[in-house]
C-alpha cells in the first residue's frame, strides 16, 4: 500500500487551478478529502511583504506603502491571500523527499558490490578454468642431499665415497695381515662386543679385476664381520664400522647397478651393524625385482626384511613381480599373481585398488578369452570384497575392454559400456577425462550398428563442446585415439564422407597433437573397401545413335539419358585430379583416390621418388611421413582393389604393391587373396585358379615357418577357400585330394585330446564365500569360448564341393567321405565340450590351494 502523503501529493499535483475548481465537482469526483485538508490548513498568513513592493499597474508611477501603514490599513486593502493548496503541496513534497532519502539510505545498505568488465572476466576465468590446466602448487623444500638436486652428482659422490672406503678397507686388510686376525678380532670385541652371523656373499667366483668396487667393499665388510662371529660377545651394540652416509652410498650404488643380491646383502649387514633399515630401503629392492619380474627374489626379500604384514606399497610390488614373471606374450593367465592377491584378501589385508587395476589390465592384455573373462570376474570380485567404488582409471579400463569382448559372436559390447559410463558419470559423479571419452567412443564405434556409431559421434561432440573455458577452449581436445575410434565406427557403416572429412582434419593440422599414422590410414583404406558407390555401370543403359528419333529426342526418358551420359563421362578420371568434397561416385573414382593416397605415402616415406603430379593432388605442406608402410597397411590397400577392381588388376597389383612398399607378406595376405579367388566371377575362374595355385605355394612356406603359431581359424579358412576354388573350376579330384590332405594334417582326434584343455582352480564355479578365487563372477563357462580348438571343417565349408559332386554324378564314395569328415569333426567338438564342462583342476594345484588355506587357518589360530 502506498503512503498517504504520497497519495496526497499526487492528487494535489493533479488538481486543477483554483479558479476552475468547483467544490461540487470535486466532491463528485472524490476530491473531498483534499478540500477538507485545505480548509483545515488555511490560516491568515502573516504578511511577509517587503517594506516597499510594487503594485501591479501600468506606467512608471508606483505606490509605496510602509509596514506601519500596511498594519493599520491592512483590513481596508484588497490583498489576495496565499493559496493553501500550494502550502500543502510543499509540505507533502518535503515528506516525500525525506521518504526518498530514507529509502536511498536503506537501498545503499543492501546493495551488492558492483563489478567491472575486467572483474567479471577474471571471475569467469576462474570458474570455467579447466582442472587439467591448473598448475599444482609447488612446495619449495631445501634439499638435504645432492640426490634431490642432481642424480648424476649424487651418483658421482657415491662412487667417490665407495672408492675412499675401499682404500681404507684395503689398508685395514694389510694391517690385519700384519698384526693377525685374532688381535683385530679381540680389539673389535673390546671396542664393540658385537656378535656377528654374516651370510656368505657370492663374489668369490668373479675375478677381482672384473668385480665392481662396491662388491669388493661388501666382501671386505663381510670378512670383518666373519672374524667377529666367534667372539660370542654378550653386549649387542653398533660397531660403528661404517657411517650412515657410507651405508647409503653402497645401497644406492647397488640399486643403480640393478644388483639385487648385493642390495639385500647391504641391508642385511646394516641390520647386523644396528643401522636402521627403513621401509623405503625394502621398497626400492622390491621395485627392482618387480620391474625384472623376479618373483622368487621378491618373496625372499619380503621374508627377510619385513616383519609382520607388508604395507600397501610392498603388497603392490610383490604382486607386480609375479605379474611381470608371466608376460602377456606368453598367452597364459598369471596364476601366481592371482593366487598371491587372493591370499592377501584372506589375511584381511586386501591390496590397493591400483593393484587390482594393474592385474586387470594385465589380464586384458593376454590374448586369451579365458584371461579376459577372468578380468571381468576379478572386477566384480573386487567390488564385493575390497573396493566397492572403482576409480576413474579402472572404469576407463573396463569401458575400453567392452570394445574387444571375449565373445566370438560380438564385435563389441556398447550396452555394457554405456551402463558403466552412466554409473561413472551420473551415479558416482566422477568427471570423465580424455581417456574415458576415447574408451566409450571406441566401444560404441566398434559395434558396427548405426545407432551406436551415431552415439559415438554424439559423445565426441559432447567431449568437444560441453567443457569449455571462458575463451571457448575445450578441456578435452580430440587426440589421435579419438580420431582412430571415430574412424573405426565410420568405416563399419561405410560412411566414407565422414572418413574423408576426418582425414582432412588430421593431415591439415587443425587438430593439435594429431598425426596421421599407419593405424589411421589402415582404417581409411577399410572405409574405401566398405563404401558402396552410388553409380553402377551395370545398371545403366548406353543409348545408341539408332535409338534417337528424327526430332533428336531419345526414345527413353531424357532425364535417364542425361544421367547415363554424365555417368559415362565420369568413368574417365584425370590422373592429376584433386580431391573434391563430394565422395567418389563410381568404383573407378574410389580406386583412383586410394591409389593416390597409397603412392603419396610411399613417396613421403622415401619408398618411391616423388612424382611431378603429386603436389597437384595434395599441397606440399600436407605430409604422410609418419605413416610407416607395413604389411597390414598394404593388406588394407589390397582389400579396396579386391572389392572395387577387377580380378586381373588385383592379381597384378598383388605382386607389385608389396615389393614397392618393401614389406613381406603374412598369413592374412594369402588368406584374403585366396578368398578373392573363391569369390571370382564365372569368366574369371581360369585366371583365379592359376592365382590360387601361386598363393597356396606361398602359403605352404608361411605355414612351415610358423608351424603351431598361426591362428587355427586362419588356417581352416584358407584351406576352405582353396577347396572351393578348385571345386568351382571343376577340379573335383584335386579338391578331394586336398580335403584328404587337410584331414590327415588336422585329424578330428586332435580335437578330442583331453590334454588340450585343463581347468585352472581360479576358474572354479563352486559357490563359496571364502576362497583363493573370485567369489562373484560376471562370466560362466558357457560364455567363454575355447581358443585352443584346432582347425576343423563343417558342412557349410564343404557345401560347394558337395554340390559339384552331386551334379557330376557317379561320385558316391566322395560324397560319403565328405559326410564322414563333417560328422567326425562334429562329434569331436561335442566330446571336447563335454570334457571341458567336466574338467577339474589338477591335483597339484588343489594341493597348493589347500596348503595355503591350512597356513591361513594356523595363522588365525595363533
TrEMBL record:
UniProt-annotated stretches for the region Disordered: 53-88, 551-583, 839-862
Recorded superkingdom: Eukaryota
Keywords: Repeat
UniProt signal peptide: none
InterPro entries: PPR/CCM1_RNA-binding, TPR-like_helical_dom_sf
Compositionally biased residues, Polar residues: 55-76, 573-583
Classification via PANTHER family: PENTATRICOPEPTIDE REPEAT-CONTAINING PROTEIN, TETRATRICOPEPTIDE REPEAT (TPR)-LIKE SUPERFAMILY PROTEIN-RELATED
The protein's name in its UniProt record: Pentacotripeptide-repeat region of PRORP domain-containing protein
Species of the source: Dendrothele bispora (strain CBS 962.96)
